[in-house]
Design brief:
Helix 28 runs antiparallel to helix 29. Strands 2-3-4-1-5 form a 5-stranded parallel beta sheet, sandwiched between helices. It starts with 31 loop residues before the first helix and ends with a strand. 60% of the residues lie in helices and 4% in strands. The chain is mainly α. The protein contains 44 helices and 9 strands.
Length: 948
């Protein structure tokens, strides 16, 4: 008998037998050991000795190919071969396999065949003695494929035959099976043992190794596969030769090459082939094994095997028998007391082939069983998402917990799915409304239009309720407030108008506030008619909106400040968020930046706790504008990044998207990243975005870019259109958007001096009417070059501007004013003063070396000074040396105009620590407050005479 010299190559049974005589030769790769054992069996048989060899393994591991190879080899050696194959279809046919075996002896055993058709159970199994007599005259080989499907009568017949067989009888049995099944297995606990004297061998056929897979790829594809491809194929097929063959056949039919570039196609084909093999394996499984497999497909390894069996309703077949059977056909893998389906494609195919009703019912029972077993919430939620409503009291709380967990890990789709499923359960109206509000907040990110529709329905339903429960107060307000946060002012105005006539008295004040906040002007006609806001509202929501109205009109800054503070008083839990945000914007216009930031921080915490992503994004965008104003460029960028993470640009409503884009553009300009700013400016905005409140802001940002490019015609067009839209809304306050100086500069560059001067004077007049230092200083800063001043007047104007801005929180504008002051002082020849002006700018430029301000500062040159007369030195207070380094750092920042909050952020300490350091410093320096700190800073920046 020839032996294998190359373990990767199949052995032909005879020199004249082609490698493919028994099927695909690839099935016999790496099967040299098994072929050697079959050869030994045939050799013993030829020498007159009997034995039994059973080849087992998972389906597709070439057991049948090997026994067919052995049968062919035996026939060529002149041995008599009796062949049969057991099948699931004939499992109930008595003596079905025996009748196949006796077909070869039909001429000598007709009576035995007839007896098998109508057997007498009182007599020994007919035909066994005929086979034994035949073997004694000529060696015979019984070849039986798939003994796991033997019908009980044939199994009993074979066991009877083998018990009467002794080693000297030249009769051998070569069998194949899937799993561990042999001829001696009956499916019970008391299987008979084979005769002790008879050589019986049981060999498990292993999967192919990586080397065998590589050889199969080379044989099927004609070229070697690369290492990554072979590794992926080995993993995906688990080295199963039959699966491997079918996958590669389809792969080569597509004309693909076996390399890493085609791994996606490989995985897709493997999933399909594994699914087909799974279906074939299922066809032969007993009904209870199939039921258990379906339960495993639904639950995975969530439950132990005994609970899986209970879920499947398998009561008659022993647990171990079912487990062994599923493992034997290669469908499952056991780990401890649990089992799981080996291939994901098999699991998917099992679930796919289940009837819809049966599948839903199985998921329902699985969810209940998993919950009772104390399974993890996420695992139970996975089952609930695929089950019909259960009506159990634990379902909604569990799904809500899973919703919250999904939000924490930023899995918005999963979160929405959990809450949508929770709403399918029986719920009282209040609980349903609350879940709807939470679901709409989550949908603002992944499917915002659906969220808007939910909120509109919720607002109308809550407002139309005959007697809303007291615990439901404010539900309509919260729904509209949340919907408006995404930016659709027209939706908010329309929905509020529809809800107002039916609203509960407790909600009316807040709804009126939201209506006017969403309206373009406070005198806009409404349907139905809505009364205007009181001049001095007491309601926090109305106070916040009224403060914003005053800020946009640029009148009565003190009143706007007081109203904004009313709106932000308390913890704000009962007040809608958007009016509070409007109050913060009003405080930004009144130069009360620290108060605005404190309120924004509180709102951001509230929004994050409640998972209100759209509101959080609006808060972060406004806070970024505060940071820009204060020259905190990195903080502004961080807030804008956070805003986009909270609510991606695609989820912003087109009416509000210009707000985000414009703030991004301005941040890019100030940070010196003009290319990035231009990319953002080119972002397409749907046409409806031009109708929104924030479109003028985007026009202004684009106008600034056009001015930087020297395109004054485009600058003029954009800035005028910006102004036209603002004036149409009666927004005249320069503190909100200083478009007039830019338009005036463009007019000057294009030769229209008269219009430039008109716009300049109007800007200054309106800024003075508003009256805040930031507005007045900024108006003077950006109109300076529009005056035809002599050098002395230019210096005086620059110093006046810097003084105004020094007393405001507009730190960035202040630094620009100092840069302009440097230019005026240099032009007049006051080099010493110019150096002091530039020094303050240089400190900021050092911290932000790529910023627009730093670039402008580096472009300036200081003219040489011809040995000036020594000016008297300024005396620094003796207490300066007594300050600690921490106190000195804090004092210098305070002297440069930073608020306590800003100092705390820069030094990474608490605000209380800043207050204590300043108190200690005032005591040591013997000064009263911040006004004297500015004189101290001037002393430190000039030649110092020590007072000690």
């Amino acid at each position: 008998m020839p032996r294998s010299k190359e373990r990767n190559q199949p052995i032909t049974c005879t020199p004249g037998c082609a490698p493919d005589a028994h099927g695909d030769p690839a099935m016999l790769l790496e099967r040299g050991r098994e072929q050697d054992l079959i050869g030994d069996l045939l050799h013993r048989l030829d020498q007159g000795a009997g034995s039994v060899l059973t080849l087992t393994g998972r389906p597709g591991h070439a057991q049948n190919a090997l026994v067919r190879w052995g049968a062919c080899r035996a026939g060529h050696d002149g041995l008599r071969v009796l062949r049969a194959q057991a099948t699931p279809a004939e499992r109930e046919l008595r003596y079905g396999v025996v009748l196949q075996l006796l077909d070869a002896l039909a001429d000598t055993a007709p009576a035995a065949q007839a007896a098998l058709i109508a057997p007498d159970d009182r007599q020994p199994p007919p035909g066994a003695d005929v086979v034994l007599r035949t073997a004694r005259t000529a060696p015979a080989l019984l070849v039986i494929e798939d003994v796991q499907w033997l019908d009980p009568a044939s199994r009993t017949w074979l066991q009877y035959l083998l018990r009467r067989l002794d080693p000297r009888t030249p009769l051998a049995v070569l069998a194949s099976s899937c799993g561990a099944a042999t001829i001696w297995d009956t499916g019970g606990d008391d299987d008979p043992a084979p005769p002790a004297a008879l050589p019986v061998h049981h060999l498990v056929v292993p999967p192919l190794t990586g080397r065998g897979v590589a050889a199969t790829v080379r044989a099927c594809c004609g070229i070697p596969g690369d290492e990554e491809f072979v590794a992926a194929l080995t993993s995906a097929t688990a080295g199963n030769p039959a699966v491997l063959r079918d996958v590669l056949r389809e792969f080569t039919d597509l004309g693909l090459s076996p390399d890493a570039d085609h791994l996606p196609e490989l995985h897709a084909l493997t999933a399909g082939v594994v699914g087909e093999h799974t279906v074939r394996a299922l066809d032969g499984l007993p009904a209870e094994a199939n039921s258990v497999l379906r339960a495993l497909a639904v639950c995975g390894d969530l439950l132990d095997f005994s609970r899986i069996r209970a879920l499947a309703g398998a009561r008659t077949t022993p647990e171990d028998r079912i487990r062994d059977l599923l493992e034997s056909v290669g469908l499952t893998v056991s780990v401890g007391d649990k089992a799981h389906i080996r291939f994901p494609a098999s699991k998917a195919r099992v679930i796919e082939d289940m009837p819809a009703g049966e599948r839903a019912e199985l998921y329902s029972r699985a969810a209940e069983l998993a919950h009772d077993a104390g399974a993890n919430d996420e695992d139970v939620a996975h089952l609930l998402l695929r089950s019909p409503p259960l009506g159990a009291p634990w379902v909604v709380p569990l799904l809500h917990r899973s919703f919250t967990a999904a939000l924490r890990r930023e899995d918005r789709h999963r979160a929405c799915a959990c809450l949508s499923r929770a709403m399918q359960e029986p719920l009282d109206p209040l609980a349903r409304s609350r879940l709807t509000l939470e679901l709409a907040a989550a949908e603002a990110v992944v499917r915002p239009e659906a969220g808007d529709r939910r909120l509109a329905e919720l607002a109308r339903g809550a407002a139309g309720a005959a007697e809303p429960p007291s615990s439901d107060a404010g539900l309509c307000v919260r729904a509209i407030d949340l919907g408006y946060a995404r930016g659709d002012s027209e939706w908010a105005r329309r929905t509020t108008g529809e809800a107002l006539p039916h609203a509960a008295p407790a909600d009316r004040e807040a709804l009126v506030a939201l209506f006017w906040l969403a309206s373009a002007r406070d005198d806009e006609p409404t349907i139905p008619e809505v009364a205007p806001l009181p001049d001095r509202p007491v309601s926090p929501a109305q106070a916040g909106v009224r403060a914003w109205q005053l800020a946009t009109a640029g009148a009565e800054a003190d009143k706007a400040r007081k109203l904004a503070r009313i709106a932000l008083a308390g913890d704000g839990r009962e007040s809608p968020m958007m009016p509070r945000l409007a109050a913060c914007a009003a405080l930004l216009a009144t130069d009360d930046h620290d108060e605005a930031v404190d309120a924004l921080d509180t709102m951001l915490v509230t929004a994050r706790r409640a998972h209100l992503r759209s509101i959080g994004a609006r808060v972060l965008t406004l806070r970024a504008r505060v940071h820009l104003c204060a020259a905190r460029l990195e903080a502004a960028e961080r807030d804008l990044d956070s805003a986009e993470r909270a609510l991606p640009p695609a989820s912003w409503h087109p009416r509000a998207l210009p707000n985000l884009l414009a703030t991004r553009i301005v941040a890019g300009i100030e940070a010196g990243r003009s290319d990035r700013a231009r990319q953002i400016a080119a972002t397409p905005v749907p046409a409806v975005g031009e109708e929104g409140t924030w479109w003028p802001m985007l026009l202004f940002a684009r106008a600034r870019l056009a001015a930087d490019d020297g395109d004054w015609e485009e600058t003029l067009r954009l800035s005028r259109e910006c102004g036209r839209r603002l004036l149409r809304r009666q927004w005249t306050n320069p503190a909100l958007l200083g478009w007039r100086p830019l338009a005036a500069e463009a007019c000057l560059e294009t030769g229209d001096r008269t219009e430039a001067h008109r716009l300049r004077d109007e800007e200054l007049s309106l800024a003075d009417r508003w009256g805040t230092a930031g507005a007045r200083g900024s108006a003077r800063l950006w109109t300076q070059r529009l005056f035809d001043d002599d050098r002395d007047r230019a210096v005086a104007r620059a110093r006046e501007t810097a003084a105004l801005l020094h007393d405001s929180p507009a730190r960035l504008a202040y630094l620009w004013s100092r840069l302009h002051q440097f230019g005026a002082e240099t032009a007049r020849g006051d080099t010493a003063a110019a150096v002091r002006s530039l020094a303050e700018v240089s400190r900021m430029a050092a911290a932000h070396p790529t910023s627009r301000l730093a670039t402008a500062a580096r472009a300036l040159t200081i003219p040489p000074v011809a040995a000036p007369a020594r000016s008297p030195a300024v005396v620094v207070p003796s207490g300066w040396r007594a300050l600690s380094e921490a106190e000195k750092s804090t004092v210098l920042l305070a002297a440069r105009g930073h608020g306590n909050r800003q100092i705390a952020e820069q030094l990474a300490v608490s605000r209380r620590t800043v207050e204590l350091r300043l108190s200690n410093a005032y005591r040591k320096l013997q000064i009263d407050g911040r006004k004297e700190l500015h004189r101290l800073l001037e002393a430190l920046e000039r030649p110092v005479a020590d007072a000690s």
